[in-house]
Design goal:
Blueprint: H1 5-8, E1 36-43, H2 49-65, E2 76-81, E3 87-95, H3 106-117, E4 128-133
Antiparallel strand pairs: 1-3, 1-4, 2-3
Helix pairs in contact: 2-3
């Protein structure tokens, strides 16, 4: 997942919410108008776990209401606690169009800024880490 280029600097490159996406050949840009599935890992700051969970839920609700995501495909949010007692979230969903994050509307940008403030880097990984993936089943069409 990636964040619009102009927004990256303000988020210190951590929240690059869905840019080009990936096509069946991993790493190849996905043409516009194609769905883009992402896996986002968020490492919660201590004491911010519940607020992060609520903010993630609000992000999904907002994106659905604005018809930015494919709500006919799976949306999954997982919570994990590592051996040191630190909480992380993993969220999987599909943008309706891979170009949406580069032109994300203001309500989504505001939520991204909130999310960025609730996470921390861990083990050399950013607090918010986004990967574009290819949906195998169900097939995103």
């Amino acid at each position: 997942m990636y964040i619009p280029r102009e927004f990256r600097a303000s988020l210190v490159g951590l929240f690059i919410f869905l840019g080009a996406g990936v096509s069946p050949a991993a790493g190849q840009p996905r043409p516009p108008q194609q769905p883009d599935t992402v896996v986002i890992t968020l490492h919660a700051k201590d004491g911010q776990e519940e607020l992060l969970a609520r903010t993630l839920a609000r992000h999904w609700d907002t994106a659905r209401r604005m018809k930015l995501v494919r709500d006919d495909l799976p949306h999954v949010t997982l919570r994990a606690i590592d051996g040191g007692g630190k909480t992380s979230f993993l969220e999987i969903f599909t943008w309706r169009d891979g170009s949406i994050p580069d032109g994300a509307p203001a309500p989504i940008l505001a939520i991204w800024a909130e999310l960025n403030g609730l996470v921390e880097s861990r083990a050399g990984r950013p607090g918010l880490d986004i990967d574009n993936v290819l949906m195998i089943h169900p097939v995103a069409r």
